[in-house]
Amino acid sequence: MQEQDNAIYCVENFVPANAPLRIAVVTETWPPEVNGVALTLSRLIQELSQRQHTIQLLRPRQDRHETESHREGWSELLLKGMPIPRYPQLKLGFPSKKSLVQAWSLQRPDLVHIATEGPLGWSALQAARVLRLPVTSDFRTNFQSYSKHYGVGWLQKPIVAYLRKFHNRTLCTMVPTQAMHDQLKILGFHNLQVVARGVDTKLFTPDKRSSSLRDQWHADDQTLVILSVGRLAAEKNLDLTVKTYQAMKQNNRPVKLVFCGDGPYRAKLQAECPDAIFMGMATQAQLAVAYASADLFMFPSLTETFGNVTLEALASGTPVLAFDCAAAKEVIDDGHNGWLVPGEDAQRFVLRALAITQKASTLHEVQLNAAASIRKWEWSSIATEVENMFRRVLTGALAER
Known about the structure:
It is built from 15 helices and 16 strands. By secondary structure, the chain is of the alpha/beta class.
């Protein structure tokens, strides 16, 4: 059993099948912070709340004026945190074991779900052990892959060791793809369960296509608009996006490159590609219009655990060009709703982009399939998977006891 022996197996009160659950959710990021973890986790919790489960959210206070929210079926506990180096708008929770033990002694959850692996998440593991609470977790960020992009590649092995130690102390770790499941299993992670991320198909839809936004981009009907959405950071492989765009320009077809998002890499990208359009940070509503108004979503990242932007683009009717990994590997049927580039070959990525954009009809045929191809990834289906996983964990914890 190795580290698995230390997992928390006891539950004080058996929860009957289909009964509402009391779920404590621990996270170090939450809206209005804009990142994949915050946005997808908040949507999942919203779906679970609508099913009458009682949610207690535990997270760092985002600013000193923020107050805790309380309503029927929902409560918050805001804890101390500090800005993350190089990401000052995000917080890292301080160790808070004592506060969590006190909170859960007064308001005992059926299950603790930990979404992030920082000091607050580790404190939650320790507090749950003291109170004999079952714990599940999420593997949401590929920290071990990010390290090499920030000059600390030597930290990769210690990071993997910490993450393995962390997640193997929980009864189940949700991972977003089968490929990630297989990779972590080889690295010694136990109790893995594949649960994909979801997408809001009412928000992200081809109906949001906007001629007025395309006019702002100076893009007419003959112009190919390439869209990139996400944090402008080194680990996103955005230099390849610029390289591909520049190769397309040399083919003499009208083309525009639009970046939606912000981050530390923006200045470098603007210097390399001054004619690109930089929208900066956007709301979800603005994103939905941008996705639907583009013609091709380009996603060359190789460090994603999932990449929800892939689902959002497809739901918006915009085909995706990506490497054969993460969400793209799971949801793209090559040549049907997008295109996959095997391996990590940058030149092959550029050549595939040139081939698929040579004729407007090629893009148009695939655009017709994009939105319909991801219906099974709607949030209601994902929430059902998570709910069933929670119940299995509780049943197994009772059996072990």
